[in-house]
Amino acid sequence: MKKIIFCFALAAAACGPAAAEYFPLGFYGISAPGELATLKAAGFNSFHTYTQDPARLAALAKEAKKQGLKMLAYPDRVIDSSYSKQAKRWPMLGWYLFDEPEVKRLPLASLQALDARVKAWDKRQPTVFVMGEGVSSFIYGGVADNLMVDWYPVPHLTLESVGEQVAMAKAGAAIMDPVRQAKPVWAVLQAFDWINYPQRRSPRVGGFPTFEQVRYMTWLSIARGATGIFYFQYTGSDNIPLSARPERWSTYQRIAAELNSFRKVLEKGKPGVVPPGLDPAYAVRSIKQGGRTYLILLNPTAAPLSLEPVKDWRPLYELSRYLPDTLPPQKVLILER
What we know:
Helix content: 25-40%
Mean pLDDT: 94
Largest sheet: 8 strands, parallel, barrel
Distance between the termini: 40 Å
Shape: globular
CATH topology of the largest domain: TIM Barrel
Number of strands: 15
Strand order of the largest sheet: 1-2-3-4-5-6-7-8
CATH architecture of the largest domain: Alpha-Beta Barrel
Structural class: alpha/beta
Number of helices: 10
CATH superfamily of the largest domain: Glycosidases
Low-confidence stretches: 1-15
């Protein structure tokens, strides 16, 4: 059954995901207004906060508006507070309903009731929640306006599993919410070291994702249909923000720079055609925008794949304008023609 679901998911992703009207690029775990200027300067436009105190949320919202950022926040304590009316004018990306309902065994009816309560209170802002695995959308995918899926494979699982989870989340949502089959799915990707968190194995193993790994997971998520990217999380388990660790923060700044330069394509583009003769083993997404065609091309296999069918395309974000003969495993190319 799982294999059937996965095949359906990949087929759904391959048919050409729709562009995002607004492509959110953000971080989880923002807790103080002073952090938002740093986030904005690094190229991010959105953030998630676990803060639930209405007064602190109001302070975050005020600074977010100043910085031109959008926020995800829990509505639970805001709805019946003295901030209830003004909160409807906060710069919200969405009201965050719940964190991983399948992990916490939340009944579907409870999530539906929460969604209905929030929508009855604030009819303007969308709702969103995150799942810990894409297959859960075959249960919860009909709830809320936007979905998120978090998946953190380094070093325990393959990087390709990120794309699988995004594709399954989209497929489940299309089945469970047939009226909104193009419901946005945002990927939540790794910005932490598993060595600092509980694990099933002993002794624990860890490793912070490298730039190449983060880049691969980010573009793979987009290739599989993600219409937004978040990273978990800004402040680590040691209470030190990533921005205080330049060698790690620079990874996410570099990725943000790439995505921002590609933003118009992601937000305005339409599905394109994959070049004939391209190896079907590639993870690929073709997008047309502004009279040009773009390819997001990734090698998810263990062997090099031929680039011969796209040798006349121009690579973006590479040091050389000339393509090699093959693309190595777990590498990314963004091409333009």
